[in-house]
Amino acid sequence: MSLRAFVNRSQRGLSLVEILVALTLISIGSLAAMTMQQQGTRSNQASYSREAAAALARQLLETVDSVSYTSPCLNDTSGSYVNPCPALGLATNPINAQGQSLATAGYTRQWQVSASGGTAPNTENYKTVRVRVTWNDRGATNQLTMTTVKSWAN
Fold first, then answer.
1. Distance CA 55, CA 57 (A)
2. Total-model pTM
3. 91 touches 107 (CB < 8 A)
4. Can you say whether the dihedral through the CA atoms of 74, 98, 144, 51 is positive or negative?
5. Domain boundaries, position 67
6. Disulfide-capable partner of 144 in 32, 53, 84, 120 (CB 3.0 to 4.6 Å)?
């Protein structure tokens, strides 16, 4: 057999080993791309949940800013987290990301009102309001807390 016949025969197609190597490389690349896509989707969902919780907390804090310091809603200064006062007109727990009451919603919004004061005249008349939003994300409980101060002047 001449060298020319050997070269022509080897150029007729791909060997089985070459095909298997190519398929393995394509499979590994595809698996990596799918994993990255899945992780990106999880990150987007977690970001959406955190942003929704922040919006729900801000909504309650803005409502607190609009009520009087002497409002009965701000009188419960027990120091524990409780459901917000129904007189504020906000939805009751559980709530969805838009702040609507739904039995299957994933967010719980609570607040804590603390009477603050001290011996100095400028620290005697204010209340600290903490809002805590809790939600579950793939079996893990998450929470976000925001704080505002309500003074006698506002």
1. 5
2. 0.71
3. no
4. negative
5. 3-151
6. 53
